[in-house]
Automatic annotation (TrEMBL):
It catalyses: pyranose + acceptor = pyranos-2,3-diulose + reduced acceptor; a pyranoside + acceptor = a pyranosid-3-ulose + reduced acceptor; pyranose + acceptor = pyranos-3-ulose + reduced acceptor; a pyranoside + acceptor = a pyranosid-3,4-diulose + reduced acceptor. Residues 311-325 form the Glucose-methanol-choline oxidoreductase N-terminal domain. Pfam families: GMC_oxred_C, GMC_oxred_N. InterPro entries: FAD/NAD-bd_sf, GMC_OxRdtase, GMC_OxRdtase_N, GMC_OxRtase_C. The keyword Flavoprotein applies. Its cofactor is FAD. The active site is at H540, H584. GO terms for molecular function: flavin adenine dinucleotide binding; pyranose dehydrogenase (acceptor) activity. This is pyranose dehydrogenase (acceptor). Monomer. Catalyzes the single-oxidation or sequential double oxidation reaction of carbohydrates primarily at carbon-2 and/or carbon-3 with the concomitant reduction of the flavin. Accepts only a narrow range of electron acceptors such as substituted benzoquinones and complexed metal ions and reacts extremely slowly with O(2) as acceptor. It comes from the Eukaryota. Keywords: FAD, Flavoprotein, Glycoprotein, Oxidoreductase, Secreted, Signal.
Amino acid sequence: MPRSSLKTVTTVFLASSVYFGLAQGIILNSLDSLKANYDYIIVGGGTAGNVVANRLTEDHAVKVLLLEAGASDTGVLEIEIPFLCTRAAPQTPWDWNYTTVPQPGLNGVSIPYPRGYVLGGTSSVNCMVYTRGSKADFDRYARVTGDKGWSWQNMFPYFKKSEKFTPPSDGHNTTGEFNPSVHGFDGFHSVSLPGAPTVIDNRFNLALEQLHGEFIPNLDDNSGSPLGFGWSQSGIDGPSGTRSSSAAGYLATSIRNRSNLHILLNAQVSRLLPTGNEKGVPIFRKVEFRVDREGPLRTVTASREVIVSAGSINTPQILLNSGIGNAGRLKSLGIPSLIDLSDVGENLSDHPLTVLAWFVNSNETYDAYYRNSTLQAEEIQTWESTREGAFVNGIAQHIGFVRVPDNSSIFHSSPNPSSGPNSPHFEIFVSNYLLGNTPPTGNFLSISAILLTPGSSARGSVKINSTNSFDVPIIDAGLLTDKTDVPLLREAVRSILRLSSAPAWSDYIIGPANLSQPTITSSDAEIDAFLRANTGSAYHVVGTSSMSPKGMKTGVVDPDLRLKKAIGVRIVDASVLPFVPAGHTQAPTYAIAERAADLIKAANLVSS
Ligand SMILES: Cc1cc2nc3c(=O)[nH]c(=O)nc-3n(C[C@H](O)[C@H](O)[C@H](O)COP(=O)(O)OP(=O)(O)OC[C@H]3O[C@@H](n4cnc5c(N)ncnc54)[C@H](O)[C@@H]3O)c2cc1C
């Protein structure tokens, strides 16, 4: 998100918004129904956790408890309505409301660092852009973990398994807008193309034609070969015009009603507790938690495994609280070290994001929906009654992925951080409004840049600073701290400036929204200064519980996602990825969780 939008809580005008606590149904509405023991306990009902909950309970004999710290997602319009996604987080009741430490790469500024605090986790508050990354990203995961199971070839079926590609909300003919052969149609995560046309669509496509040498078309960026430009796909269920979070998809009513799945909301896990050892290797099958923030500490036990899916910030926090992490640092805090694993919370990797925007000569942009409460209420009514109109669209209508040439001077003194020759360095996406705080007047076009390949030293961390498991963690996002980061993002800015100079925009773009915004004649130094002052995060946080080969001392989990040096614990969420992929992270998280469920099922077959 642009940094300006992160500093203020945006006022949202909503006709109605409901915030449920414990819901009825198989979601437990009383602790009396909670058992002392389950086969599996899943910590975190977020993007990955709900996939695992769904898949493990396909076998009715398997009893699963899902503990989620946040509340129900049901009836929250900011979550359900795709257009309102930027109002679901940050700094809302559905956000953990974290803030980073001052970021040296961003002129020393701290930035908000949202994570979903609600059933569905971050899939309930994200911007829904659906991209998988490149084939080379997954082949690199396979290489560095020593497990071919993480290769593109093996993960491609899991992308398809998780996905339900749906027609767009307006039912328009999508021939030529995507490649059906690379999509799944029977999964739980709905994906669709934009469901309402916008005033910029024709101009954007014309601009691509006019600049064809540089901006090549790509029918579908989710084939493993993302380079090029095309229509943006989002995690939106087209026919209902609704966000497809993991709660809406993987925990649809029929799944929530499974009697072998218990879901406890408002249940925050503090620690994993040791339950014995096998040949000196500690076993952790007990989970400590509290309900409703104030409640007493309780425990519950798993007979098979505890699966930690609390996300890239909270998963390492829970491990550190439990005495699993850098032994010296834990001891200095007064926490007994149970497993010395110094990479817990380290290696945080994220995508920097910068927004460029222009005043435009049109009153058909979406800006007015954010600033005018009457218009917003009317559009919500349209959405509620027809599931059509502007509010079925997410943030991006058009998207593209670009690779900087291998002979660029950027790579003369530093290694090229890309995962492979067909993998992009940056992404560009186009929005029909100002992505950020909406000013009182004006109509806008935004074209945003995401640096997809942060360099190897651009790594942050998650640390704890007290023995109180419920204190907020200390987060360093490490944004723009590698030598290659700003030069590569500068290339993205130059690319956007060329795109915005295409004749197609000549009677549309009036001038820059921000006077300090670079122009086509800006020097490198001017662009770099703009980037340091105006870059935020795309919130694609990974790496804090990284996979590494079995037996390797670095890393946090083995390639089968089992916690190293322990028995009984697996980690299944975005934190296990050792590098951030060259794309947004929710689609990879769904695919990882699908594979994890198969790994867990297979291990259980062997052990029984
Ligand atoms: C604002 C925003 C916009 C984004 N936009 C996009 C996008 O457009 N496209 C995209 O692909 N990706 C996007 N992302 C990133 C993507 O959504 C995440 O990478 C992905 O959803 C992470 O999934 P996860 O399972 O690792 O964690 P989460 O989905 O965050 O799940 C973790 C769950 O665990 C729960 N939890 C945490 N701690 C505890 C505890 N102690 N006890 C019990 N429960 C706990 C949380 O409440 C949460 O429900 C965005 C992220 C943000 C924040």
